[in-house]
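Ticket #4471: structure output looks truncated?

Reporter: J.K.
Steps to reproduce: submitted the chain below (704 residues) through the standard prediction queue, then opened the result file.
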Amino acid sequence: MAQPTDNRRGFPEGVAGIPAIRLRVALSHWAMPVLLVLTLLGVGLAYQVDTIYRIDAGNYFDRPFLRGFHDREDIGGTEPFRWTGARAEVRFPGVGAQDRWLLVRLGGHEYPGLADRVVTVEANGREIGRIVVRKGWQEYRFWIPAALQQRGSLRVVLETEPFVPASVVGGEDDRLVGVKASRVELVPMRSGLALGWPASVPLLASVVVATGVYLGLAMWVLRPVWAAAFGLLISAALSWALAAHRLQAAAYLPRLAGGTLLGLLLVPLLGVLARQMYRWSGVAAAPWALRTLQGMFLIGFWLKAWGLLYPTSVAIDLKWHLFQAQRIVDGELAALYRPGALAFWITPEQWSGGAEAAVPYTPFYHLTAAAFFFLPWPPYVTANLLSVFLDTSRGFLIFGLARKLGMSERAGVFGALLYSLLPVTFLLHSWGNVPTTTGLWWALAATWYLVGGWEKLARWQVGIGLTLLLLGTMLYYSVTAAFIVVFLVILLLGLMPSSGSRTRSLGAIALALAAAFALAIAIYYWQYIPAFLLLVRTGKLAAGLAETRQRVPVPLFLWQTLRRLASVRYGLLWPALLAVAGAWLGRARLRDPLVRWLTLSWLLTGLLFFAVDYWVQLVDKHIFFLAPLWALWGGVALDWLAGRRLPGKAALWATYLTLAGSALYTWVYRLSYVRQEWSEIDVRIVGERLAPFLAQGVARLFGL
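Returned output as attached by the reporter:
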C-alpha cells in the first residue's frame, strides 16, 4: 500500500522532521533525475558556443589566471603589463577542446648591452615554439590543436632566462625578471557555433552545485519540487555564465562546488551538536525548529561562502592578518608576542612616544591562523570559511539563549533568522576583520554557556568550561575581553541583591571570571601593565584621549551613529526598535532577575562603550556586540506579529524581505566594487598548495 504523504511538503506522513528520511525521499523523487539531466544539457549547450578568451596580464581581474608573474605595472603612455619570472604560467580553465590560435603579446627589455631574451612556449606540457623577444611590443602566434586540450583546459608556460635589473643598470630593483607580458589570447578557428564536448571540471562542478542545492533545500527547507526549482535556477545561471563568461565561471566553479559540499557536510554535524547543546541546557527544540535553524545556517553559509570564494573577492583586512600569521610560520612568534607588536595597526597617531606598548592587540588569532598554512589549500580560503562558519552558527546560540530565557520556540527561530539577515554581518566579512568576528563568537558562546548551564555552574567541570570560554574571549580579541569583563561585572552586581538560591551560581561565575582574567593576564596581558601605568603617570593617556576624541559635537556624533544604524549596509535601526518592542511585549519575562539583568548588562555594556567610542574609535564593535541582544528581543516582537492577522503578518514579511534585500545588495555591491592589490610576496596567502612541509611546523613557529 502506498504510504500517505504530507501534502504540504511532499514527504511521507510523520517523517518530515527526519533529515535522513527526507534525503532518501529527495533522492528517489522524480525531480532529482530531471534536474540532473537538465544541468548536463545546459552545460553541454553552453559549450557549443566558442569565442575569444583574452587574459590581460596588467588587468586587476585577470590575476587568478596568472602564476609566476610580478606585480602589474601601468607606466604612463604604455599599456599595462607584468614582468614574467623565470617560469610564468597563464591558465585558461575549462575552455573546452577546440582548434585555436594562441596569441601572446610580449615586450623585451630596453637595457643596452643586454642580450634579447629567448622564450620557450609550452602548452599543456608540450613545447610549441621558441621565440626571441626584442625591444618593443610584438605579437606572437601559435597553433593549438584540440588534441592538446583533451581535458578542456589549457596551461601556457613562458620560460626564459631571467636577469636582475639592478645588476644591469644599478638601482634597487632586485627582482628576477624575464620579458614583459601584456596580453594572452585564445582565438577559435571560427567564433560562434563550435560543436564539442564540455570540459570535465566545470561539468562536474555544475552538477555538484545544482544537485547539492537541491538536496540541501529538500532536506532542511523545501519540498523536493521547489528545491529542484531552485537547483534548476542555479544550474541555468551557471550554464549562462559558462557561455558568456567562461574563463571566470570555470575558475569559480570548483570553489563554488567545494563551498556547496562543505555546507552540506556541516549542517548534519551542527544538528547533532545543537541537540546535545539543548539537551545539556535543559531546553526543548522541536524537530521543525531545529530543521529550520539548520536550513538558515545552510543558506547563510552558502551565500557568504560563495561570495568570499569568488577568485577576485576581497576581505579587506584579512591579508594583513594572514601576513602576521605567516610571520609566525616563519619563526617570528616571539616578535609578535611582545607588547605593541601589532598595536601600530590601531594605536592613534596622537599617542606618540611608545604608547603602542600600552595598547594590547593579541596575536592569538594569528597563532591559530598559522595552522592554515599547513593545509593543502590557500590560507585565505580557510580564514574566510572559518569566519563564515562562526558567524552563521550563531543562530543556534541565539535560539538556545531564547529558549533558556523562557521565550517561545517560534520567537527563538524568528530571532535567529533576524540575526542571520542583518546586512552588517555581510559587511563584517567584506571588511575581513576576522579577530572581531572570532572574538564576538567567543563572547556569545560564553554567554550561552553561562545561561544554559545556570543550574550547573557550581559543578567544577561546568565551571572549568565557562573559564575556558571566557579565556578564549579575552585572548582572541582585546576589545571583546573588555566587553565580557564589563558585562559580567554588571551582571554579578545586579543579581547579588536578589541572589537567594542563585548564590552558588553567582559564586561560580565570579570564580570563572576571576580565573579567566588572571590566566589572560598571566599568559599575555601582564607585559602591558608597566607601559600603561607609565602612560597614566606621565599624563600621555589623558592628552592622547583629548586628541583622539571625535571632532564633532555630541549631538552630531549621535546623529551620525543613528544614520549608520539606519543605513542599508548596517540595517540595524529597525531590529533595534523591534527589540525595544519585544522587551515591552515580553516584560513578564523581565520579572525574572536573570532575564532582566542579562538584558540590562548587555545593553549597559554597549552604551558604556558607546561613550568610550566618542574618545577612542571602536569602529562600532560595541554595536556589533549588541546585535544578538536585539535579535533575541526582536524575535519576541516578530512572534507577536506572526500571531496577529494580515497586518501583523505583512509587517513580519516586510521586515524579513527588507533585511534580505538590504543584505544581498550590500553583499553584491561589496563583492563587485571593493578592490585590493596583491603582490608576488602574498602568494603563500592566496596561492594554491604552497603550504610548508608539516615536519617544519613546530620548530619554525618558535624559530628553532
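Triage note (M.O.): checked the attachment and the full C-alpha cell line is present. Residues 1-16, 688-704 have pLDDT under 50 and may be disordered.
Status: closed, working as intended.
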